[in-house]
Design brief:
By secondary structure, the chain is of the alpha/beta class. It is 49% helix and 12% strand. It has two domains: 103 residues, Orthogonal Bundle (ProC C-terminal domain-like fold); 168 residues, Rossmann fold. Strand 7, helix 7 and strand 8 form a beta-alpha-beta unit.
Length: 308
């Protein structure tokens, strides 16, 4: 057990009395991370979001909350029930794709990679000269979009699902025709939902495999940890709370500490102790290499999508 840890029998704050609200957790956790930043200096009056799914909604909400003055947002969403829901809750305009992109300063492509070509065919000829196009379609190169939408500035971006709570991580890359001004505009908009890292487009497949898919890896780990906790006699709801806070605190420590993860792990791992036994079991089953292999598989799949 790490020094300074509470006694095993000591009660844990928030457990047994109902978990704190998500808003309360965010207020307690996010201020120290610096992930929520104001989208100032954007200079955008109209944004078209093509695709109103989970990520599309996250971007709309973040921009509405963080970008001032607030731009007009038009969303193109195929599903009538989803479209009606977005109108009712977020107050956005709902239009078909060609109408949504007309006169838009910024167009955000939030569709599945397999749908991107048909979408580009649909909006070609309706996009304003000089518009900024931000694509978050995994594996789709900027060159493909530049060819379909001549005269635009294209930025390839890969956010992740924690953007839903303004804690996302987005990797961005400028296309061949994207100048610094438009890249910075994309950065400002995307910081509305979290942190942004600029990378060369050649590294986008790696970004996709690490931060884009990364939350799923953590949730996969959480599933196993919760199962282990329940098998050890902890109530399922309490197990979820224990695991969530453990992962949250460890992530926070990793972010603010100057120590590499190997040292942080060593600080918890006493010789012949409980953590050492767990790590030995992981190593015996090749967990570390399996994680690396999984990230490699995700990167290769992104490359396959890029190749069409």
């Amino acid at each position: 057990m790490p020094s300074g840890a509470p006694h095993p029998g000591a009660p844990m704050a928030g457990l047994g009395h109902g978990p704190p609200s998500l808003g309360a957790r965010l207020r307690a956790f996010l201020p120290g991370l610096g992930l929520i930043r104001s989208g100032k200096g954007v200079g955008v009056t109209r944004i078209a979001v093509l695709g109103g799914g989970v990520m599309g909604e996250a971007l709309i909400v973040g921009i509405q909350r963080r970008v001032h003055p607030a731009p007009v947002i038009a969303v193109a969403e195929k599903r009538p029930d989803r479209r009606a829901d977005l109108i009712a809750r977020l107050g956005v305009q709902a239009q078909d794709a060609p109408e949504a992109v007309r006169d838009a300063d910024v167009i955000v492509l939030v569709v599945k990679p397999q749908d991107i070509r048909s979408l580009l065919d649909t909006i070609a000829g309706h996009v304003a000269e000089g518009a900024l196009v931000i694509s978050i379609a995994a594996g789709i190169p900027t060159a493909l979009i530049e060819t379909a939408l001549p005269g635009t500035h294209v930025v390839r971006a890969m956010p992740n699902t924690p953007a839903r709570i303004e804690s996302g991580m987005t990797g961005i890359s400028a296309g061949a025709r994207c100048d610094r001004e438009h890249l910075e505009r994309a950065r400002h908009l995307l910081t509305a939902v979290g942190a942004v890292a600029e990378v060369p487009e050649s590294a986008q497949d790696a970004i996709t495999s690490v931060s884009g898919s990364g939350p799923a890896y953590l949730f996969y780990l959480a599933e196993a940890m919760i199962t282990g906790a329940v098998e050890g006699g902890i109530d399922p709801e309490q197990a979820r709370e224990v695991v969530a806070q453990t992962l949250l605190g460890a992530s926070r420590l990793l972010q603010v500490s100057h120590e590499p993860p190997q040292e942080l792990r060593a600080n918890v791992t006493s010789p012949a102790g409980t953590t050492a036994a767990a790590i030995a079991a992981f190593d015996e089953r090749g967990v570390r290499q399996a994680l690396i292999d999984g990230i490699t598989a995700a990167r290769m799949r992104s490359q396959e999508l890029s190749a069409g």
